Amino acid sequence: MKQITLYFFLFALALSANAQPVFTKADTLRGSLNENRDWFDIQQYAIDVTPNIENKTIQGFVLWDVKAIKNSKRIQIDLQQPLVIDRIIMVSNGLKKMDTLAFTRDGNIAIANPKTNMKNGENFQLLISYHGMPREAIRPPWDGGWIWKKDANGNPWISVACQGLGASVWYPCKDVQSDEPDHGATIKITLPKKDNIIAIANGKKQWDEQLILNNGTQHFTWKVTNPINNYNIIPYIGDYIGWSETYKGLKGNLDIHYWALRQDSVKARNQYTQVPMMLKAFEYWFGPYPFYEDGFQMIQSPHLGMEHQSAIAYGNKFANGYLGRDLSGSGWGLKWDFIIVHESGHEWFANNITSKDIADMWVHEGFTNYSETLFTEFYYGKEAGNEYSVGSRRTIKNDKPIIGHYGVNEEGSGDMYAKAGSMIHNIRHAINNDSLFRSILIGLNKDFYHQTVTTQQIENYISTKSGINFSKVFDQYLRTIQIPIFSYSYDKNEKILTYQWKNCVKGFDMPLHFKYLDKGFDFLPADYTPQKRLIKVENFDPVAFGEAIKHQYYVELNVEK
Ligand SMILES: [Zn+2]
Question: Is position 375 within any domain?
Fold first, then answer.
């Protein structure tokens, strides 16, 4: 009897595992705003870290500036194993009270018990000292951690990549995208004094001369004043050469700093000329660069690249394309440097507008994927942009929905890049008014300036501002793997085209506007009924007709017999 019960139990478990992915308690602790996390709002991080290059260890402390937004409970601190928390000190009551807090570790988090109760609106600080050997990156930037490399001359070349994995892989933080430090962060890196090895981080350097200490070490302090994603706060250490220029942009003078390894600085000077080109194109499409106060840096990195805010990681070998390839296959992707364009595009979508939950990461990657099309269009014309977008569809897998599960630190499908980008291309052509489309992109960056958002906010914004209800289009492309089929037949004698949408969510009604044989066609949602629709078409050629639709819309076509 017992065995049968066990058998059924396992069977039920297997069934439920099939129906729903299994998430662990750790996933939920990391991905959700539980009661030990939702009562406080991070204002600022001050990170002070000393890497030991020989041992691949770090030690340091982080000061959290925090505001209570509800009455206090316990405090969850994220710090991934095997890093060790040495001490947690809470400073409250206007710096008058200082308590060492008891805490318990539970996997990758610690729970600390405040001795003083905080009330809604009160500020306090948490000083967390820690040490250990942080996870080493296996295949950065995708499989992140600390990167302990050497350059061709044998100098240390060190950085971190931790998107997805989370910043708690190297410093104690509230590791969830919905709580950015409102006033930014300072990053202080201490290194042995060596003339050529320097440390760079986000934002601006704090002193002209690096602070040299008696004990033979040297501090490098950087400060970013704007809200920033935890995973974007990153040090770069190496034999770097730097140079600067001032970009005259939409918000005035923008300080740009370029950094490359000494050995690569000549190649870098040439390739980085695409940075002002990128700024010009993206300020046109998206509005002002969102972090003028912190400047903009392009920094050679020991991995392919990442959107580290105001300190973009660049590792694309100073060649156009994506490691020399064109992801779109259209040829246009070889005209520019994929990493300079894509990672900088994230300054608007990911860094300025951040998704609260990584399940909604299409907001970062979909718009940034589409920024590649817009960059191509800006310099090579609208046709080139269309060809790039159409070509990008070849990377779409339709393996699972773009939006992942909420509250468990889970990203959705890799289709958040090209498929979400194609959906934006669809929406743009459905709006059929490029100046309105552009004003929506600029409006998103203005109205959600420095904010964290949900997909719903972005979806509603686009529907409201365009005057077209795109909710079913979002449902279709973000929440299912079905590609809408435009199914049609043609009556040669009557010259009548009969068509309908198939394979789509109920109520799917994407407007189609396209040119066929130099004649504009408009299939408007107002025309739509649950039945098939009719339209008069002279000189019908099904191949050319289909091509015309596919040029602007990511849909399947079906000719009914
Ligand atoms: Zn990206």
Answer: yes
Output the six-digit token pair for 83: 């890093």
Residue in 159, 290, 231, 201 with CA at minimum distance from that of residue 411: 231
211 with 169, same domain: the answer is yes
> Which residue among 230, 264, 298 closes a domain?
264
What does the block give as tokens for 558?
Answer: 């079906």
Q: Is residue 324 part of a domain?
A: no
Measured in angstroms, how far is the CA atom of residue 417 from the centroid of ligand 1? 7
- State the distance from the centre of ligand 1 to the C-alpha of 211, rounded, in angstroms: 35
- Domain boundary among the residues 215, 246, 264 is at 264
What is d(CA 440, CA 442) in angstroms, rounded to the nearest whole number?
5
User: Ligand 1 centre from 362 Cα, in Å?
Assistant: 9
**The total number of structural domains that make up the chain:** 3
Domain range spanning residue 547? Answer: 485-559
Cα of 305 from ligand 1 centre, angstroms: 9
Round to whole Å and give the CA distance between 531 and 339: 47
Show Cβ contacts of residue 352 under 8 Å, excluding neighbours closer than 6 positions. Answer: 290, 291, 445, 448, 449, 450
Q: How far is the CA of 284 from the centre of ligand 1 (A)?
A: 20
Quick one: which H or E segment has residue 245?
A: strand 240-249
Is 226 inside a domain boundary? yes
Cα(431) to centroid(ligand 1), Å? 25
Tokens describing residue 261: 């390894």
Among residues 286, 287, 159, 322, the alpha carbon closest in space to that of 232 is found at 159
Q: Are 399 and 521 within one domain?
A: no
Q: How far is CA 456 from CA 119, 120, 510, in A?
A: 31, 28, 18
Give residue 280 CA to ligand 1 midpoint distance, Å: 19
- One digit per residue, the tens of pLDDT, for the chain of length 561 reads 445 555 555 545 444 444 567 889 899 989 999 999 999 999 999 999 999 999 999 999 999 999 999 998 999 999 999 999 999 999 998 888 999 999 999 999 999 999 989 999 999 999 999 999 999 999 988 889 999 999 999 999 999 999 989 999 999 999 999 999 999 999 999 999 888 999 999 999 997 556 667 778 899 999 999 999 999 999 999 999 999 999 999 999 999 999 999 999 999 999 999 999 999 999 999 999 999 999 999 999 999 999 999 999 999 999 999 999 999 999 999 999 999 999 999 999 999 999 999 999 999 999 999 999 999 999 999 999 999 999 999 999 999 999 999 999 999 999 999 999 999 999 999 999 999 999 999 999 999 999 999 999 999 999 999 999 999 999 999 999 999 999 888 888 888 888 888 999 998 989 899 888 878 888 766 444 545 566 777 778 888 888 889 999 999 999 887
Spatial separation of the C-alpha atoms in residues 35 and 30, rounded to whole Å: 12
Same domain? For 389 and 504 the reply is no
